Amino acid sequence: MVQSQQESETLEPVAGQSQSDENVLAARNLSVWYGNFRAVRDINLDVKRNSVLALIGPSGCGKSTLLRCFNRMNDLVLNSRVEGQIIYNGTDLYAPSTDSTEVRARVGMVFQKPNPFPKTIFENVAFGLRVNGFKGNLQEAVERSLRQSALWEEVKDRLNSSALELSGGQQQRLCIARALAVEPEVILMDEPCSALDPVATLAIEDLIRQLVAKYTIIIVTHNMQQAARVSHETAFLMVGEDRAGYLVEMDATDKIFTNPSHEQTEAYITGRFS
Amino acid sequence: MASGDILHPSSGFETAEILATERRKRRRRTKIQGKLVKWFFISCALVSVLTTIGIVVSLIVQAWDFFIEVSVWEFITGTRWTPLLKPQSFGVLPLVVGTLLVSSLAAAVALPVGLATAVYMAEYAPEKLRRIIKPVLEVLAGIPTVVYGYFALTFVTPLLQGVIPNLIVFNALSAGLVMGIMIIPMISSLSEDAMIAVPRSLREAAYALGATKFEVARKVVVPAALSGIVAAFILGISRAIGETMLVTIAAGSTPRMTFNPIEGIQAMTAFIVQLSLGETPHGSLEYNTIFAVGILLFAMTLLMNLLGFWVVRRWRMKY
Ligand SMILES: Nc1ncnc2c1ncn2[C@@H]1O[C@H](COP(=O)(O)OP(=O)(O)O)[C@@H](O)[C@H]1O
Ligand SMILES: [Mg+2]
């Protein structure tokens, strides 16, 4: 604890200056605690702008926990605590002066299970805009987001019907549109396809490949093929002796899948354990 | 082989054989048991259904005698209620207005406070505090209404008289305010249950879009729980309309066609109490007013509940 605090002190100015424009996010000596249990420890990684980073690893290794640090969603968990830093465009997301709602407007999130609000399709997409005090043309903004998430053609005639009438895959694309509406810079996706059928999954993967032109995406996935298909870089996490998750390695996705530096990575990817 | 047996006896699955035999034995027993259980539950359900029917029928029968002598129209639209004084007059509106006045005052207190309490409990209160407040509210809901009645009469009324000097002792204001306090626990508890049932994933979705805690409560949790909240409101108001003790003790016994809360009124229930405690002979026209007022009261609460049912159906949100 003491050690990581010292490190973060020395790191702060360095990070503030040296973070190149290439990286939009970085984790520095990041540990997350749930009460007395350390769920992830000493994570250091950089996330390149306009790229897709895949987080892979066995269940319970802390992928979701790590992901939820990037938009401070872990703040909502009672007794959770974060050590170290998340640097976003040169500022520390966990600095006392940083407003967590501001962070979440800049770093959007898509969840494992589609979770549209029990409102109309339109209101779902407009929600973030309204909450963040959007003054422009709501109609246009909603349409733009729905087009970006490749849902517009399917829903343009029923914007005022309930979002819950959509299929699972459509609901998930609606959730993506909802996240896109506030124009975040980064989108976090926590196993976004795990509740979807293969066709809907491919639609989301297509979408991810298109979105990366404008956004940076971090995706947690259990599906190795999916990681290989959509991501540029892959980070492999594992549970250590102390039951805390740690980063084994992170590299270009090609390299991770063909020639990983660590034996465990290869073992995991080839399915020798999971 | 017993009928309905699908396992071939020589299948060689030993455990399955044993289970099949056991099942066969049990099947006969459970068939009878099933029937008994079913009839037990049906008869339990019938008790309340039959009671309700009985009440309605007896109300109608006895109100019939009343409405032979006084027209329904006169009863419903008349603005003077003097069944025990000469000249007699059977316009029920003063009683209805009295009941509505007290209930509106109660609603004005209980709806905002009950909803705010529920939001606080469901969204803001730390778990420890919740575990203390919840039982306290439930105790509050269990206090006998006569206690609330005397609380209104001997505590709240003198207090109010300090602020409003010409407030008379028996008044609608005090009864209405205390009635509001009385139904807060019911409203907050039911609303809170509805809010707690809103899935965490919806809250997370809103937070992830940059919503503040208050925005999450106001724009996601309350709308998603709206049908439950409205049901709680309607149950609370129904309860206020039917409440007897408090209005009998604190609101007065003067039927008066007024919406001024600082005056004394007589609520429908309070009239029924007054008349049934008096010396009016059974079967007389005066006595039968009880049933006419009773049936109207019944119709009003039924209407409220139907309204609630409709609202809940109309606004129900799946999640
Ligand atoms: N809210 C929480 N409270 C306590 N422990 C948690 C909580 N969320 C996750 N954990 C624990 O943290 C570890 C990592 O969980 P998680 O990040 O969900 O893993 P993954 O997403 O890789 O499956 C697990 O051991 C899990 O039990
Ligand atoms: Mg997870």
Description of the structure:
The complex is a heterodimer of chains A (274) and B (319). Chain A is an alpha/beta fold and 274 residues long. Chain A is 38% helix and 25% strand. Chain A has a six-stranded mixed β-sheet with strand order 6-7-8-3-9-10. A four-stranded antiparallel β-sheet of chain A has the order 2-1-4-5. In chain A, a hairpin with a 5-residue loop joins strand 9 and strand 10. The N terminus of chain A is likely disordered. With 319 residues, chain B is mostly helical. In chain B, strands 1-2 form a two-stranded antiparallel sheet. In chain B, helix 11 runs antiparallel to helix 12. The mean pLDDT of chain B is 91. The chains are: A alpha/beta (274), B mainly alpha (319). At the A-B interface, helix 3, helix 4 and helix 7 of A face helix 7 and helix 8 of B.
What letter string, H or E per element, gives the SSE order of chain B?
A: HHEEHHHHHHHHHH
Low-confidence stretches of chain B: none
Helix percentage of chain A:
25-40%
What is the CATH topology assignment of the largest domain in chain B? MetI-like fold
Shape of chain B: flat
CATH class of the largest domain in chain B: Mainly Alpha
The H-level CATH homologous superfamily of the largest domain in chain B, spelled out, is MetI-like
Low-pLDDT windows of residues of chain A: 1-19
How does the major sheet of chain B shape up?
Answer: 2 strands, antiparallel
The CATH architecture of the largest domain in chain B is Orthogonal Bundle
Main traits of this protein?
heterodimer; A: about 270 residues; alpha/beta; six-stranded mixed beta sheet; B: about 325 residues; mainly alpha; MetI-like fold; about 75% helix; about 0% strand; binds adenosine-5'-diphosphate; binds magnesium ion
